[in-house]
Amino acid sequence: REQFKWNAMRVFRPAQQEITLLSIGYYGSSFVEGLVPLGLGLEVHDTIDPRQRDQTHTAILAVNDDWKLSPANALSFSAFFRTYNLALFSNFGEGLIRQSEFRTVEGGEARATHTFGGLLHAMQLQGMAGADWNEDDPRRDNLDHFLSPDAPADGPFVKVMANNLTIREAAPFAALAGRAGAHLRFYGGLRPEFVELRNADLLEPSRSFNRWASFLDPKATLAFTPGAVHWLPVVSLSLGQAFFTQDPRIGVAPVSSTAPAPPPSLFERSHSTQLTLEKTLPGTDLRVTLGDATTTATLAKIDPDTGLPQDLGPGSLKFLTATLRHPFRFGSFQAVFSKADARLAAKASSPAMPTPEAPRTILDVLATLERMPLGLEGRAEYEYVGHKLLDLGGFEAVPVGETRVALVRTLFNRRLDLGADGMLGRGYTGQTTETFAPGWQVNGPPPFCSSGVSGVANDFDCGAVERAVGVRLPSFVSLSVSWRFSGQR
What we know:
By secondary structure, this protein is mainly β.
């Protein structure tokens, strides 16, 4: 694996403004990457197909201008532009495929804030209004299938999907925040969303579409502060709703050689309720959050690389998260524990089943040491993700554990940082299920299925043997050098 990164930031402060410029660049490639059957990572050398590889690069430019007009008024303007490229060769058990795309993402925001005076000064009332705009343009979003089962052979790819996509979002917003009395703080905001989703199918133009949708997303928070009653915690209750978009390519491919698939549901809603209790003890901060979120549809997309390609219907997520922070003279300690229960909505024919691929238990412990021998600063972290169901057929993920350690030595009045960090990994990330070619054996040739097995043109679904798969977590050590340029120029 090779990775090259670039980060640069500069802040200007002319008059009453603070202008921040940010530039980020990344290029990475890997030749051992892909899902392998759980427990067989070492046996298959972390890849069931030696042709698997990936290459990606991205570049981001961003600018933000905070303008303090007066003690009561402020303006903020921001904009960003990003490019992204991906070329991914993967074998999920049925033959080598290639996923590729090039996209540009751009957006901007204008925001004004005003602190009210006069009769409203006692409420510490502050208002905010503005507008957001974002556009995401994946181009040449392609999926290709390689028809040769011979690992060292090169040959033509067969096109399976090819799309040009556009997602546009425009949203004005307004909010008010302040106090009602000595113990009650409030916040209320409203965000109308106008969203366009455009899909230009380059293989089957008849499947192209352009759809608009609008949503009204409110959010409200009430917080009680105990004041002189020191033994009571700060309690806050938040309510809100939002929308999310599905992948426009899901469900648009034909289900047979003659019948098109029904149009997918592209826009979905979610509703969230959250209760938070916070308490500061001598030297220790405690925070407990209970939440409940419901969605109108569930694809089990916990992260972009996993999830189910079909809609599982409405679902809900209930969770409890507890955080403890304690600073020391020479460092700090933090622990986070979260327990969740994600379920599909009950139906007449079945009870509320657990949502596949949704984590159930997460534990993270972090300790930092700022005063160590030889002028070193250190950090150690352990993260544990418990088991989860991978599908409704009984496959379960194995727990994942990561232990990270980092050391930093600063020189030349903290202008030069020399660092070393490493991770001891256990388990598999991106765990899901895939159907494998029936005849594949460990240490055998790469899994392969001939095109058109199911009778659909350019389809390569074996649909025979299901396996639990994932990407084995490797252990590693890395070195870093950081240099801070003079702030006087």
